[in-house]
Amino acid sequence: MAQSKVSTKDSKEEARWEDNPPYTTRSEKEFGTVYWSGSCHCGQVKYQLNRKKPLDAKFCHCIGCQKLHGAPFQWAAIFHKSDVNFLNGHKGLDFYQSSDNLREHKLPCKVLCSHCHSPIMDEGRNVILSFPELIDFGEGQSKKEALDLFAPSSKSPIPAFTPSPAPTSTATMTWFQKTINLPARSRGSYLITEQILSELPELRTYKTGLLNLFIQHTSCALSLNENWDADVRADMSDALDRIAPEDRKGDLYRHSAEGTDDMPAHIKSALIGASVTIPITNGRLATGTWQGIWYLEFRTHKHQRKVVATIQGEKMV
Predict the structure, then answer these.
(1) Range of 145's domain?
(2) Which end of the chain is less enclosed by CB atoms within 10 A, N or C?
């Protein structure tokens, strides 16, 4: 990913964002006491926090977070920009402005590691939303106390985060099953993560479990893959066409009863597979940052498809 640039339309203050917190590097004396340290997943980007308790914490549920994190909610802690100190300034960072689909520093924007692409924080005009999963809270009692400090308030759109075990809750193993109708689509690869999540609000009631998605057809498939760039899905469809091309001359396949695209569709379906299984952790799909659920349609004409969703797991009652 190329280094991000500054929008020329922004104010002079915004144009000098590199010289302002959290990107201007400050000495130990200037920054003050460091309460927390964090880093991206690859460790190339490191930062510090000089505020012990965040201004607030919440579960963000904006569309941008849903797309970027592949989940309906994202745990975020709010800090002043001056509370944050990136050890290498803006080096190694990339920026994404979701409303205009710009990969540049234009507020509000998302801040990511340019090496491993880990989302690090959302930056606004005056505050940032950091992602506590990247912060080192230590172990044992100190970690428990830290998680209590970073717990979302009761105003959060889902029940407040409770890092401490709830002794009054009883865990039970349950099953749930539902059939989901996918919109009729022609040949192509489609990202359906948001539809699956909207169709399965029951996911939020599971502490730990598995979601299995099974498509009931032999000329399409399901997969987990890149959720960021639509070109990946187009390239995947093209690559599968090269592996199993249509037999317009009648030399490749015996089966052609339903058209020249039918036998290649069966081959692609067998290669990709009819199902995916995803872990559930604390009411959310435990997918990686860049993973999304794909529906791959291999027939030329539009077909209505059905997916059986089965949840098995431990619920809190």
Answers:
(1) 5-149
(2) C
